[in-house]
Structure prediction request, 159 residues.
Amino acid sequence: MIKKIAYVLLAALVIIQFFRPARNISTAKSPNDISNKYAVPASVQEILNTSCNDCHSNNTVYPWYANIQPVAWWLADHVNEGKRELNFSEFITYSPKKAHHKLEEVIEQTKEGEMPLQSYTIIHQNAKLSDAQKLEIATWADGLRKEIALANNLQPEKK
Prediction:
């Protein structure tokens, strides 16, 4: 009986390998990329590339284990959720109010160590942010948030 269950599980594992999710790979920089409208210093862009863009852009660099189901399904769901929350490749399409709010979330979640996710940094050790990098991202996002608020007459939020 145990042998039959093992064969069925093995067969199921082999069969699901043929059902792969779509990959989040863009061949070109999006015309709606944040850097096409706003200044993104090279050092900030490097941090975004290393620690943020796999889940928050239209281009994910996939690890080898992304070829194995059901891990690939989990990764696809994770990337899609990250892009729904914030997508730097589509940032220009956000309304000024939404862009302002997203940058506020970047500041908060970076400072509090919520981003990048611990589940991501376990595998991607180089994505962990130092205190200096957290400050750099927060300072950049705050400056950009203020620029957007000023350009669009957004009222400062009451805290």
Q: What stands out?
A: The chain has a mean pLDDT of 88.
